[in-house]
Amino acid sequence: MERITPLLWLLFSAGGTVAAFLFPIHLFLTGLAFPMGWLEPPRYEFLHRLAAFPVTRLYLLVLVSMPLFHWAHRFRYTLYDGLQLKHLTTLIAVLCYGAAVLGTLGAAWLLWSMA
Amino acid sequence: MNAGPHYTLYHPRWYRRRVSVWWWLQKGSYTSFVLRELTSVFVAYFALVVLWQLRALGQGPDAYAAFLARLKTPPFLVLDAIAFLFVLFHAITWLNLTPKAMVVRLRGTRVPDWAILGANYAAWLVCSVAVAFLLLRG
Q1: In this complex, is the C-beta atom of A22 within 8 Å of any C-beta atom belonging to chain B?
Q2: Best interface-test mutation with B: which of A12, A29, A30, A36 has the largest number of B CBs within 10 A?
Q3: In this complex, is the C-beta atom of A88 within 8 Å of any C-beta atom belonging to chain B?
Q4: Is the whole model's pTM more than 0.80, yes or no?
Q5: What is the ipTM of this complex?
Q6: pLDDT at B4
Q7: Quick one: pLDDT at residue B76?
Q8: Helices (H) and strands (E) in chain A — how many of each?
């Protein structure tokens, strides 16, 4: 665990930056502006064509994966400090980073298999 | 934590104050610290929404329409509104820390904090406008 801590910090910080720069606008549009009808959502064909570009797929993979690692790292310490669960270190770490790895694999698979 | 206290002759018991699980509600700065830490939960939530959207997109127009319809239901609207506030809080607190995290030197002098902050906020604006521009064209 100690040996990969610098890598985990790097992922935390990369994910935090991706989430800071891109999540507010994406969440505002997808979660509020489009469903509330304030703005016209993009049509299916447009999004589907957009997602066919390799650069879009790479963007989407980064958009999902990096913030998940950011969550894993930060939430791990939230559980330790907030709920005083220091004695469950290994279990919490495995669950958090494991979920981020699963989410990354899921995104990669969905993007890879998208027709 | 050890299984039990170790008693020694002149040091009969360690003094350790019990701290409530709600310690972070006692002071504003503690509360904002914990709220900032909790932003990660909403960051993960939205990453999952994007995953769900990708799955619907791959399944076809009907699945995608069903996805859009689900996001219009009140539970998702409320959750997304809360998540948006938390994600915004994450972005602001994250960007405000950048002058401390990245110390840039130009010709031997340190670039002032306001310049690094300004550059980051400008980059945030550019990213947001670019994403909105692309998605609103469709």
Answers
A1: yes
A2: A30
A3: no
A4: yes
A5: 0.94
A6: 58
A7: 98
A8: 4, 0
Block means of pLDDT (10 residues each) for chain B, 138 residues, are 60 72 87 93 98 96 97 98 98 94 87 93 98 91
- The structural domains of chain B, with segments of one domain joined by +, span 25-94, 102-138
* Chain B closest-CA separation from residue A36 CA (Å): 7
Nearest CB to A71 within list B40, B49, B124:
B40
Q: Is A2 part of any domain?
A: no
> CATH classification of B25-94 is 2.60.40.180, yes or no?
no
CA–CA gap between residue A39 and residue A42 (Å, rounded): 9
Interface test with A, best of B87, B89, B126 (most A CBs within 10 A): B87
Is A1 among the domain residues? no
Interchain proximity B54–A107, CB inside 8 Å: yes
Across the A:B interface, residue pairs with CB atoms under 8 Å apart total: 158
Q: How many domains does chain A have?
A: 1
Residues A32-61 have pLDDT tens digits of 999 999 999 999 999 999 999 999 999 999
